[in-house]
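Quick one, tokens below. Sequence please?
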């Protein structure tokens, strides 16, 4: 009798692709499968991994831990992840999942988490003004309070100290422009942000 055996689950037309976005080029492992930094892996392509295994891991396993630590982004998911718990639903949205969350009669959450968005602007040791790919919420929205998180070369920056932000199209239109105060980005600067956008 072998010590170990695998149960293979038949899967067709489904995907659950994880991208390694861990800071500082970190290599991660999920379900004992290595994923180099910046690369993707369809976890459902692993023969012994089923949709139920993924659902359980998202609830209280290694997928949840790596999601909370902002080491992964889900770039494709079409499995059933219907959620009636709003906190868990918000977590799934925060790691990139948008499909398969709403059951019959449920309404969609009116915001979307964006992680690891690269800031747009000229890095020439002179320009201090950069923009985000989307207009983001910074402050109260419904029952939530959202704040942008900005990293320069992996270091967290402080709003109001390291940078300021404005709504370029006027008050109430959404923030989209950052001006750096304590440094001037150069050609080697890596500038990324996590933020929340409206879905409507």
């Amino acid at each position: 009798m072998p010590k170990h055996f695998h149960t293979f689950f038949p899967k067709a037309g489904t995907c659950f692709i994880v991208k390694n976005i861990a800071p500082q080029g970190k290599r991660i492992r999920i379900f004992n499968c290595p994923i180099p930094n910046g690369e993707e892996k369809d976890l459902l392509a692993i023969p012994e991994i089923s949709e139920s295994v993924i659902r359980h891991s998202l609830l209280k396993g290694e997928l949840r831990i790596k999601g909370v630590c902002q080491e992964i982004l889900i770039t494709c998911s079409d499995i059933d992840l219907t959620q009636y718990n709003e906190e868990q639903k918000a977590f799934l949205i925060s790691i990139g999942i948008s499909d398969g969350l709403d059951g019959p009669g449920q309404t969609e959450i009116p915001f979307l988490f964006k992680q690891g968005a690269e800031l747009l602007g000229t890095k020439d040791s002179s320009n201090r003004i950069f923009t985000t790919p989307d207009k983001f919420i910074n402050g109260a929205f419904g029952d939530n309070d959202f704040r942008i998180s900005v990293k320069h070369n992996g270091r967290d920056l402080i709003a109001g100290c390291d940078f300021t932000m404005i709504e370029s199209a006027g008050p109430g239109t959404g923030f989209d422009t950052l001006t750096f105060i304590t440094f001037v980005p150069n050609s080697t600067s890596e500038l990324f942000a996590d933020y929340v956008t409206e879905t409507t």
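Residues 58 and 65 are 8 Å apart (CA to CA). The chain is about 15% helix and 35% strand.
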